[in-house]
Design brief:
InterPro entries: ADAMTS_ADAMTS-like, TSP1_rpt, TSP1_rpt_sf
Radius of gyration: 28 Å
Strand order of the largest sheet: 2-1-8
Number of helices: 0
Organism: Xenoophorus captivus
Low-confidence stretches: 41-45
Keywords: Hydrolase, Metalloprotease, Protease, Secreted
Mean pLDDT: 77
Number of strands: 8
Number of domains: 1
Protein name: A disintegrin and metalloproteinase with thrombospondin motifs 9
Order of helices and strands: EEEEEEEE
Helix content: under 10%
Shape: rod-shaped
GO molecular function: metallopeptidase activity
Length: 129
């Protein structure tokens, strides 16, 4: 027998088993002979404005979408477009002199639980009658 626990984070905080994927849970028992068992080891919207060569263009962007993962790393996206001084959509080249805000980024909601197993322990054989 061995202990199998659901742990989260770099410090290995023990969580309820429901926080880990039950389908991937390692076994806590194994069949073995009496001789010896083997051991298995949201940013608010911003606007960047520039006025060069008589042009007044800016990058506009919306709110981030929800993270694509419910735990661990995922991605989130947002709409980013170059706009002219009338608020109309302009060619991206008109905003080339400004750094373009990212339209996609990596996100992490909460750490995913992982299974942690301890060493196997010996089980005493019941006395025979």
């Amino acid at each position: 027998m061995r202990a199998v626990r659901c742990v989260v984070g770099s410090y290995g905080a023990v969580m309820d088993d429901t926080e880990c994927n039950a389908a991937t849970r390692p076994t806590d028992t194994q069949d073995c002979e009496v001789a010896q068992c083997s051991s298995s080891h949201p940013v608010p919207p911003r606007i960047k404005v520039s006025s060069t060569q008589g042009h007044r263009t800016q990058w506009r962007f919306g709110s981030w979408t929800q993270c694509s993962a419910s735990c661990g790393k995922g991605t989130r996206m947002r709409y980013v477009s170059c706009r002219d001084n009338q608020g109309g959509v302009a060619e991206e080249t008109a905003c080339a002199h400004l750094p373009k805000p990212p339209a996609r980024e990596v996100c992490s909601v909460v750490a995913c639980g992982q299974w942690k197993v301890l060493e196997w322990t010996a089980v005493r054989k019941p006395p025979s009658s």
